[in-house]
Amino acid sequence: GTGCNKLRNITLHRQKDFAYALPAAVSNRLIRRSKDFVIRSGYYKLIIVTSIARLLNMEGAHPLLLDHAVRDWVFIPLTLAIVLMKLLTQYMHLLFNTPPPTNKELKELREMQAVARAGRLRGFGRFIPESSFKMRKDYFAGEKGIFSHKAVTRSPQEAMATDPSVMVDMMKKNLTGMVPQLAMGMVVNFFFQGFVIGKVPFPLSPRFKPMLQRGIDLVSLDVSYFTSLSYYILLLFGLRGAFSLVFREDVIDETEMMRRQMNPMAASPMGVDMDAMFKSEKAALAAVDYEWELESAEERAVDILRRQLKSKKN
Amino acid sequence: MAPKGQEQNKIEDLINPVAYKSNLQALNFLRNFVAVVAGIVVGICGVVGWHGFIYHFLAQLSCVVAMFLKGCTNPTSYFATWNNLLFFGVFSSTTLLSYILFWMIFYNVCHVF
After folding, report:
1. Could you give phi then psi for residue A198, rounded to 5 degrees?
2. pLDDT beyond 60 at A229
3. Considering the entire predicted model, what is its pTM?
4. Does B54 touch chain A if contact means CB atoms closer than 8 Å?
């Protein structure tokens, strides 16, 4: 077969290539004998190659000859499997993503709305006349205002303890998000361990070696070669872009979840510390610099008219 | 591609947020697509080395040309500024990582095989 041709070409050339020729000859015979073992002989071939390279202390500049069987049985199936797994998790997330039932009382809702309204007041206060603004400000931040009362909303810890639905929601998010990826990582690590799978097209500094070659301790192996576990992680990160083409909506669920875990304030929709929000809103309202837009509107209109007349003249 | 919205006075522009967001989404989609396709092409060609990234940035800049062809004659009325059109999402990690990934996959399948 093709393996025989390769063997002859190699032995004609330099002697360094003998290391590849010898295990190729051995494992070719293995392939020809039993087709059932084609997968395992591919693995054995690479393990033989790497061990002989270790013995002969090969330099890294020599391009590694990687076997066809590895491509057929590891690279392409791994890629397909990860793509399918990501598709599955995406669809599961879509199916299971029912919004959590709002089990908040009226008072809690009212407080949340009050905070939102105060924020809007601060942002767009210049569109209402001064007396209205002052009335609203007093309603929120005055001595008997809303923000002076104690908040009724429970803090997030209490909410998590008393409400079982929060736990169920978190479990669902975890189940459809991180768990399949971790499980797949373990499966990949278990089955495809101990050999390199491919080559990164650009040269890298040796600092990337532990990142790209987990589990292989060859010092002289080129840094551009990576193992299946690092390929798995690269796939996870790289398929985000491709998936955002297929699904137009927000696809990057696990990065969002990671960001949410790092930013616990904005995490759950009900788990905000209401007292602190009240205090900050009160201080912000007191600090706002108010000016009614209509006061300066005449001047601005004159400006615009002047500019337009000037441009018409020119 | 929906236009941005009226300009009421020269000082403050009113931006129609829905239109702006949909324009940016169209640009983002185009950028991702071009990153994937450029990665595949570069991988099949067998480009090795750091200069392979130049093709990525070339492809991203060709998105600007594509936007002009799509009808965006005056970038300030479709995107907020020129810089937004040129550089939005060029350096984002999704496009870069997709480019690297597909470059790697096709280089491996065709050349290291």
Report:
1. -165, -170
2. yes
3. 0.63
4. no
